[in-house]
Amino acid sequence: xxxxxxxxxxxxxxxxxxxxxxxxxxxxxxxxxxxxxxxxxxxxxxxxxxxxxxxxxxxxxxxxxxxxxxxxxxxxxxxxxxxxxxxxxxxxxxxxxxxxxxxxxxxxxxxxxxxxxxxxxxxxxxxxxxxxxxxxxxxxxxxxxxxxxxxxxxxxxxxxxxxxxxxxxxxxxxxxxxxxxxxxxxxxxxxxxxxxxxxxxxxxxxxxxxxxxxxxxxxxxxxxxxxxxxxxxxxxxxxxxxxxxxxxxxxxxxxxxxxxxxxxxxxxxxxxxxxxx
Length: 277
What we know:
Elements: H1 4-9, E1 18-23, H2 28-33, H3 36-47, E2 50-55, H4 58-67, E3 74-75, E4 78-79, H5 83-106, E5 111-116, E6 123-127, E7 135-140, H6 145-152, E8 155-160, E9 163-164, E10 170-173, H7 175-185, E11 190-194, E12 201-202, E13 205-206, E14 209-210, H8 212-220, H9 228-240, E15 246-249, E16 261-263
Parallel strand pairs: 1-2, 1-11, 2-8, 5-8, 7-10, 11-15, 14-16
Antiparallel strand pairs: 3-4, 6-7, 9-10, 12-13, 15-16
Helix pairs in contact: 4-5, 7-9
């Protein structure tokens, strides 16, 4: 934390409206195979000056782990990662999936670049729990000015959330946690968490808005489980740090109505209808 504030202060004079889109592993196939997402990004560029994409690869990592004989276990939505499993995570997420996303964007007349949390010594991961193995929580360790410069040049940075520790070991970092750290560092205006779920569910129903108290109660009561736990905890941290346009869903709509769930500081009726443009 001691490194975080001075680094962020370097970018206080940057005045750029930035959207961060986090794509879950379960939706990557659709992103790569469909032109819908190309249209959505084109639409977002009307309202935002810069776009950053962060991606997971959970579904693909599980599939490749099974093929290679690695057991797949989770604790509170976090993948238990041995050294052998970490090689699969890096190869699939930072290699295969990142390359597929870059190929799709660049072949659609965007200029994008494939990156990971290891690049330019900007992030480092601290171990979360010895029971999880090579799993960490990212923190800022260098300047993000180079990322801002990419955005100013019209380039879309596409980040795999793979990071390193202080000793140079590869670290599996949950893409939602990486999105949180990155979004705070570059002072994002809006953060979109894209998954295979239409919205967050409480009591079996999709909800249009969620507050911090509702998220905490949902976790305690067992209504919010698995991978949604780290996602919503990241949303809480984003709210606390002043990012108040946070959305979770499966489709960023091109019309005036956005399906999904908005994470808000308090229940406000005007969040029932929000435009991205």
